């Protein structure tokens, strides 16, 4: 029986690349998105055709408890070997100009979503006696970024959640790790002008942005690592931070 994985925020960028990598390795997939349901549905069909796996697309706000409940009940997700918490949004701007609603939205999507999915996935993993959790984080979760206070704080919370949950689940043999990405060439980072992109590139010792495929390859290696590797925040940033 094929292993089953849930990848949130899978319609584009890193999540989309991780979904493809897992499908290529024979995983059956549950994939979620918030807005791009048509695109995700077509992508799920493409992965099924190409790799012969089961792939279900599901529209949900992963920071909404009702949506997450509906996902696990309606999918139906009855067994889960891998959970990849990738859903995330950024917010660029001065903290003093943020509204409380904007702050809450960042934390709902980036942190609350991890809590809600883990809360539903852990009992399934404990019942099966196995499972792996990978949270997609950012270098800003440790270093902090000017004009990205909410995003940095949310990813710092993801890192702390990863470490705490790893200790909680280690006795059950369920590793919990995080992949902290630097600048990856995704839609999220296409908000920068060409001048800003060039300036960023010059700061990175590797001399370029990372690719979603590189992030997906490393994510898979983390998921395949010995279970004794847990509670780790693994950085992929071209030597930047």
Automatic annotation (TrEMBL):
The keyword Transferase is assigned to this record: no
GO molecular function, one term: oxidoreductase activity
Annotated keywords: Lipid metabolism, Oxidoreductase, Steroid metabolism
GO biological process, one term: monocarboxylic acid metabolic process
InterPro entries listed in its UniProt record: NAD(P)-bd_dom_sf, Sc_DH/Rdtase_CS, SDR, SDR_fam
SUPFAM superfamilies for the chain: NAD(P)-binding Rossmann-fold domains
Family: Belongs to the short-chain dehydrogenases/reductases (SDR) family.
CDD domains linked: SDR_c (cd05233)
Superkingdom, taxonomy of origin: Bacteria
PROSITE patterns listed in its UniProt record: ADH_SHORT
Name of protein: SDR family NAD(P)-dependent oxidoreductase
Pfam families documented for this protein: adh_short
């Amino acid at each position: 029986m094929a292993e089953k994985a849930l990848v949130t925020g899978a319609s584009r960028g890193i999540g989309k690349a991780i979904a493809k990598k897992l499908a290529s390795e024979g995983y059956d997939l549950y994939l979620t998105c918030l807005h791009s349901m048509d695109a995700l549905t077509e992508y799920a069909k493409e992965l099924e055709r190409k790799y012969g796996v089961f792939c279900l697309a599901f529209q949900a706000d992963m920071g909404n408890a009702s949506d997450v409940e509906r996902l696990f009940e309606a999918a139906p997700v009855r067994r889960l070997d891998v959970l990849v918490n990738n859903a995330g949004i950024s917010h660029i701007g001065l903290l003093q100009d943020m509204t409380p609603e904007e702050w809450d939205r960042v934390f709902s999507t980036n942190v609350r979503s991890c809590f809600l999915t883990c809360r539903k996935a852990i009992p399934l993993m404990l019942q099966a006696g196995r499972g792996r959790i990978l949270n997609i984080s950012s270098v800003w979760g440790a270093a902090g970024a000017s004009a990205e206070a909410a995003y940095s704080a949310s990813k710092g919370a993801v890192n702390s959640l990863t470490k705490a949950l790893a200790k909680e689940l280690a006795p059950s043999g369920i590793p919990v790790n995080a992949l902290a990405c630097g600048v990856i060439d995704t839609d999220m980072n296409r908000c920068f002008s060409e001048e800003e992109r060039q300036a960023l590139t010059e700061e990175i010792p590797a001399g370029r942005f990372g690719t979603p495929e590189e992030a997906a390859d490393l994510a898979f290696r983390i998921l395949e690592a010995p279970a004794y590797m847990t509670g780790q925040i693994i950085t992929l940033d071209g030597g930047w931070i």
